[in-house]
Amino acid sequence: xxxxxxxxxxxxxxxxxxxxxxxxxxxxxxxxxxxxxxxxxxxxxxxxxxxxxxxxxxxxxxxxxxxxxxxxxxxxxxxxxxxxxxxxxxxxxxxxxxxxxxxxxxxxxxxxxxxxxxxxx
Length: 121
Hints:
This protein has 1 helix and 6 strands. By secondary structure, the protein is mainly β.
């Protein structure tokens, strides 16, 4: 395992109770959509599947195949049922790269909720 983007010490000081919230294990498949600006007029969208591993009142831990940029805001879709899905707007707070084998990577990403809405599908 190698670390990549670890949260700076200043972030921890800005939010001293970051780890104080109660965390509950909650393994659930989710979908996400990342946006990347490659130039002045080019926007790239990438969709992916991930797993939420645990949750707290303010955010959750994701296992993702693509890393978001630092402080990137993106959408996460979680299934409540086949008819209803929850859309969460989240901000990436930190990312850790995990290496499997020679060239396979996944990313642990700590996100905080900005707001969420329920939508009917």
